[in-house]
Amino acid sequence: LQVVDEEGKDVTPHPLFHPDPNAAVPRQGKTLPSSARFGAAGAGPYGSSRTSISNASTAEATQDETAEPGSQQDTTVTSSDVQVKPVEMKEELTEEDLDRSVDLYLTEMETIWMLDVPSVVASVESEDAGRILERNKIYTDICKTRPGNDRFVEKMMQTINGAAKNKEVQCDQIVMEDKGVTVTSWDLYDSFNVLEKNPTSKAGGTRATTRKSSKLHTTKEHHQTTSVCSDTDSTTSPTMVLESSVHEEEDCHSGAILTSDNFQQDLFFMERILMENIFQPKLAVYRQFPVLIDPDVTSDTGTAAATKEAEQREQGKEKKDKEEQKEAFVNPSILSDGKKSLEEVVSPSLERLWSYICDLTNGHSVSSMAWSKVNPDLLAVGYGAFDFKEQKKGLACCWSLKNPMWPERIFQCEHSVTALDFSTARPNLLAVGMYNGSVAIYDVRSRNDAALLDSGESTNKHTGPVWQLRWVEEDRGKAERLMCISADGRITTWFIQKRLDCADLMKIKRTKREEKKLPGMKERKREALISQQAAGMCFDFHPKDTNVYLAGTEEGHIHKCSCSSTEQFLETYRGHKGPVYKVAWNPFSTDMFLSCSADWSIILWHQDSQTPFLTLNSTTAVVHDITWSPKSVFVFAAANESRGEIWDLGVSVLNPVISCLASPGEKFTSVLFATNTDCLLVGDSKGEVSVFKLQNLAVPSADKV
């Protein structure tokens, strides 16, 4: 191969090694023979080359491949063999040479695997599929017969531990210093006494420290009278240092104990036990169980005598109370009959058991009460203020019968709580309505007092106080929704999603007064209404058909509404002269309902009649709340400002059968019957919820309506 530049000069690079022509050259693979002629011709600015191989050279190469390897000779080359030999110019290829056909033979070389990862999965259609399945079956049979087989023995092996390595680290030089202090013999004595005594509790540690300090002062005073120490550092020597360190250790240890979960749980159980011991007789009366007397207490003669005297005094007091109650609450119909005397009459009465009150609730007015739908011992009480000028922060507390002295859960609210109710489908949810119109939902299972959901972000929330709210079941208990009535004249239903949002169910419109026009009387000009909507005060859903409900308004009207109609009222009942504070359907006779108002009256209605069925007036005081008894169709309770009343319509429609006067300066604001016992709960304006036992109150049969 020759390389010629544009001017025709040979610029082919000469090799540095020239083999000896007499020596045999070893052939490797299919190399081209030396007899092959190469021709090159320059073309173009960069030059080009053309190569041709003759048939003779190809045949010679084929013969060389069949040569025996033993015929190769020594190919040792010395430095003298390297010669620079001039290359002769070759003739250019002719057209016949270019047109001559050349035969090239391509053979397959051995496959070289760069990466071979054997597969663990074989196709079912492969040739080795049967063999692989047979091996897998043999292995499965061996694994099944392995337990208990003598051919398999479990052995342990110890692996070789790696050689240990030593590492050295350079650090700063440790500086040693010698320090000394001058102490006296009494300092050493007091220091050893402090180290020997280890207090076991915070109280014990405080008493021990007091004794040590007093002993220290006494010892120092005694020694100071005999000798004078001139060194001022001796007064602050190891005694004071050790005492301060001991105090710090005691405080840290006591704080860790008081904040531990186990200690808090133990305190909780101890509190439960103490409450059971204190309130056991009253709780037994509440649950209608016999009161147990401790035999250890009555075994002592003196204690037994004291117990007997106390029982006699109690019996005398009860007898006196019964006589007073007979004079005050005797049935007039019995007195008219001369056959029965006062001694034969057993009138119903109230026995006060305990009160739910604590320092947090003292001074807050009880606005509403609600029992848990699942746990009959759990009571939710809302605290707030009804007067606009005396608004304060509200509370929602959950009280339990197991601890009447402190609530189980306390939820702090920014505004006064006006209404609350427990959910039926999710009993852990407590809905709370407030005076500013907001609604919040709390989780009573959590000890965190933050609201689970709040209506603060809702653009359609109420602008007036939420006077009442209630969880209402739909579709025969399959669904549940939260309903509210507010002073802004709207009845809303709330949707519980990622946030609380509501939609209007009814906008209560003001109704015109029906004035009787006398003959010759001129028509008066009607005053323009400030608002077209009447303020809603209370509502109640029908016990059998939750699609129908009653709504009491501030103008004294009661509207019968339907959830299907959001524009018109089904009926309007006019009988009150003041705001209607509460309406309640009778749970047994579902056509009758009660209402109370600020006009001092309680009215019994029939839903088919727009005129009052019965009007009850016992005092000249505002009636804040009413509730039906869960056990009798005739019995209901009412909370006046001056007293709490229990009415039995089967006995008298003129006077209540039981009355309980409020304390001076207090007003009754809320009333609620217990669900599973014959007890009544009454809330007042001082934040106290009193629990009363109903005695000698006749309960008619369930079928008497």
Task: Describe the overall structure.
WD repeats lie at residues 573-615. It holds the Pfam family WD40. InterPro entries: Dynein_IC, WD40/YVTN_repeat-like_dom_sf, WD40_repeat_dom_sf, WD40_rpt. The chain has 705 residues and is α+β, with helices and mostly antiparallel strands. The protein has a domain at 349-356 and 437-511 and 531-695: YVTN repeat-like/Quinoprotein amine dehydrogenase (Methylamine Dehydrogenase, Chain H, 7 Propeller), CATH 2.130.10.10. 22% of the residues lie in helices and 24% in strands. It has 10 helices and 28 strands. It has helices spanning 55-65, 95-99, 129-144, 185-196, 202-224, 238-258, 261-286, 295-299, 301-329, 332-336, and strands at 349-356, 365-371, 378-384, 394-400, 409-413, 417-422, 429-434, 439-443, 453-454, 466-474, 479-486, 490-496, 500-507, 536-541, 548-553, 557-562, 571-574, 580-585, 592-597, 602-606, 614-616, 623-628, 635-640, 643-648, 658-661, 668-673, 679-684, 689-695. The strands form 7 sheets. The chain has a 4-stranded antiparallel β-sheet, covered by helices on one side. It has a 4-stranded antiparallel β-sheet with strand order 2-3-4-5, with no helix packed on it. A 4-stranded antiparallel β-sheet has the order 6-7-8-9, with no helix packed on it. The protein is elongated and about 150 Å long. The chain starts with 54 loop residues before the first helix and ends in a 10-residue tail after the last strand.
